[in-house]
Design goal:
The chain has one domain. The chain is built from 10 helices and 14 strands. The strands form 3 sheets. Strands 5, 6, 7, 9, 10, 11, 12 and 13 form an 8-stranded mixed beta sheet that branches. Strand 2 and strand 3 form a beta hairpin. Helix 2 packs across helix 5. The longest helix is centred in the first third of the chain and has 21 residues.
Length: 329
Amino acid sequence: MEKENNHYYPLLHIKNWLKQTNYKLFDKNINDNRTYKKQEDFTIKLYYSLGKEDSTLEDNLSKFEKYIAKIIDKIKNSKCNVNLSLKEIELLKLYCVFAACRQHFTTEVIKLDPIGIYQSNDYIIGTHRILTQEEVVKTCENIFAEFERIKQMNNDTLNKALNNSPFNSLSDFTYGLHLNIFKNNKNSLCVSDKCAIIENTMDSKHLFVYIPISPNRALMLIKTKYYQDKKTYKKYLKYLGELNYATHPDKWISVIFSEDNANFENLLFPTYKIEKNNWMLKIQTLPNNIVKKFNSIFYEDGILFLYVNEKDLEHAKMHQLNCREIEVF
């Protein structure tokens, strides 16, 4: 049967690593590198049809990916800024949710948590935790339906519905989230078979979802409630700081936000500028120390680890963050 093995991490992203002459795939099962197997790696047999020989959903999701691939090409071919329409931004945001929801992403679980909110980890709005394959399929069906609905809207109707703002949403999946784009000039972005990283907060919403799409480009959906602008940020910082003496919107955020990464939060603010009928998004440089920590999380949680530079694998191996071991007192 055609498309029997369904990719839960899109082949359109995997190819960006494969195009690098020195790409590697590390398999923790054999503790060594091996050749990438297109029909096996990052796939599950009949995943989107729950074991039945039916490629309907897989075919539909391929249509979504094919549409998004054109937007991704714009991003890959842009060095500092990329111009996108509001429709492209909205569908790219929806795609980020899709990329995180279609498989078990990596996220933190706090082992000592009096409130229980981190341990349950089932409260995330938007890109919520997927617990069963049935939920994956249902979520993907709903996301594809949203894609079709939004794609068919003409630009005038869509812009009016969004009030000409990239901060607004046409879907519950993307509500309260804005899109940022990141680059890394050293081709050091890695990914594992856990294909997205979600950072949690204590107020029942995730802070961001991070999705590498190539060795030098990544997408991130970020909670606008905190990071729409510096004024908004300071308001929440003051409010939460009075409650728990926080130095950032969530006192219990992971090692990604440790003191040596203080500048990272500045990259979470949106960088949109209106330019004619489109929006110009700045492609920001992701600091190497943040890249290394993301890579360590991917390696820690995944079995397959896709990378370009050997030093990135070695660092991820030797610098495990033990995200499941964070204690909240």
